Amino acid sequence: MTYECLLYEVKDGIATLTLNRPERLNALGGTLRQDLHDAVTRAGADREVRVMVVTGAGKGFCSGGDVKAMGEAKAGQRERPLLEKIAPGRDRTLLAMREAPQPIIAAVNGAAAGAGLSFACACDLRIAADSASFVPAFINIGLVPDSGGTYFIAHLLGYARAFEWMTSGRKLTAAEAHQWGLVSEVVEADRLAERAAEVAAEYAARPTRGVGMTKRLFGQAFENTLEEQLELEADLQTAATRTNDFKEGVAAFLEKRDPEFSGS
Fold first, then answer.
1. pLDDT value at position 91?
2. Predicted TM-score (pTM) of this structure
3. What does the alpha-carbon distance between residue 10 and residue 40 come to, in Å, rounded to a whole number?
């Protein structure tokens, strides 16, 4: 299956999803929203996929909503009708990303702005090129953050810093994003794909179901009470003990060797 605005490749347990509207800095127009949802859902259901990498073609990661297309829309097509068209596809993609049992790595190769910033922050891990930038563009055109931006950015940065940043419209460099803890590491632009592949390969070699259940636990940690979180931990720990990777991990520990996890 091919997509109009997205490149999809699976190799060695790694699904690479490349946003492919480089002439618009991968703005979320055309079929890209639908393509991204379909690709994330497809990879999430594929037992051969143990990690996903999301990146952008060309100079940008994702410039967010296609503001140029919005500006070209007829006045009667703007505001609520436009948002009603966008919101379902946007929201279900974010939910699919969070519900996917595999970790998702954002390889941020250029500008991540507006909804593109929100999508990057919805991933489990962010690696940035030194040429990347992070732009809360919503306020600059009189809008509020969406695409989960208020949720993910508040969780990553805390209320005060998230509010100040989102209401300032200030562009962060990759180095500043790393200092803030928004990205885990920054590499030279020409090494980004290589480094993202290295990190993805490390995750592909880990116990996939254990990683996925850990993702679920941290996803619930801010909403659950302590009692609810302890119960969820116990339930998922029980599930983890039933995996082949747990058996392999214990055997490797006893035999004093490195484990070879199968992801099952």
1. 84
2. 0.91
3. 12
SS3 6: strand
Query: For residues 242 and 253, what is the distance between their CA atoms, to the nearest angstrom?
Result: 17
Q: Which CATH number fits domain 6-204: 3.90.226.10, 3.50.50.60, 3.40.640.10, 3.40.50.1820?
A: 3.90.226.10
Residue ranges of alpha helices (H) inside the chain are: 32-45, 67-72, 80-99, 115-122, 149-157, 159-168, 174-180, 192-204, 208-220, 226-240, 244-254
19, β-bridge pairs:
6, 56
> How many CB atoms sit inside 10 A of residue 58's CB?
16
Sheet containing 133-135, strands listed edge to edge, beginning at the edge strand earlier in sequence: 111-113, 133-135, 172-173
| Closest to 152 measured CA to CA, from 209, 211, 95 | 95
* Number of helical (H) and strand (E) elements in the chain, helices listed first: 11, 9
Axis-axis angle for helices 208-220, 226-240 (nearest 10): 170
**Which tokens in the block code for residue 183?**
């990205």
pLDDT tens sequence across 162-218: 999 999 999 999 999 999 999 999 999 999 999 999 999 999 999 999 999 999 999
Q: What does the pLDDT look like over 45-104, one tens digit per residue? A: 999 999 999 999 999 999 998 766 555 555 555 555 544 445 555 689 999 999 999 999
CA 134, CA 118: separation in Å to the nearest integer? 10
Letter for the amino acid at 245? D
Q: Which of 151, 143, 127, 159 is nearest to 55 (CA)?
A: 127
